[in-house]
Amino acid sequence: MKLINLFKNRTALGISCIVLAFLICFVISPLISRTSEKTVTVIRAAAEIKSGDEITKDMIAEIRMSNTNQPEDIVSDSKAVIGKYAVMDMTKGDYILTGKLSDTPYVENTYLAGLNGEMRAVSVTLKSFALGLSGKLKPGDIVSVIAPDYQKSGMTVIPIELQYIEVIAVTGKSGADVETVGGEDSELPSAVTLMSTETQSKILADLEKNGTLHLSLVYRGERKTAEAFLEAQKEVLNPPEETAEQPEENAAEAVSEGGEGE
Fold first, then answer.
1. Which of 15, 56, 67, 168 would disulfide-bridge 40, Cβ 3.0–4.6 Å?
2. CA pair distance 233, 196, nearest whole angstrom
3. Quick check: pTM over 0.70?
4. What is the DSSP string of 80-121?
5. What's the CA gap between 14 and 20, in Å, rounded?
6. 86 to each of 38, 51, 57, 96, 171, how far by Cα in Å?
């Protein structure tokens, strides 16, 4: 009797395994395969595109690809590309990403074209990778300049003139601006260009030659908030003049005393 029951249990187990295998092979696997094979439209460069080029219809191509492992910012609509301007070189077959496009023509070093004599652009060397926030600084960032052993004082300080200063470019050893860090062909930054006044430029030049400077990120975000930091720094550099209220009060007191004497 026990042998019969054992045989029945083994038979039931075997049938269950066969049914499960059938379901996996002919139901679950095809379902997973169909799901993974869903495709999406992506836009790729159909020809070499140079930085600054206005992208036309013949420069791009639409293709269907699997929706797995695609970059989040890949462009899938050709209408979102045609008429835009390339901000970096692209070779034939490159994916078109939103970060590679601009609504306006790209002009190299446009940040230098806006100088009017009041502000200056000055570059400082990043003598080690860590001194420039490990290569993560971007144009528009507001930074503080930390000066170890400032003016041979033995103290590490943030000079009051360099509490808030704007990064306008991050440059690699080749002299080209570094847009991002971490890409396959990205270049490590070796210098940072800062927007500064004459006073700030002199302090930065002295730190470059005779000391060490370390950049710490203060703010990255909306332009309005960034300008508030710069305005606060401007007030430190150019404090408001004292009013003449005190002399007027003294004069009034003198008149009052003169009247009492009479």
1. 67
2. 11
3. no
4. GTTT-EESS-B-TT-B-BGGGEESS---TTHHHHT--SSSEE
5. 10
6. 30, 5, 14, 10, 20
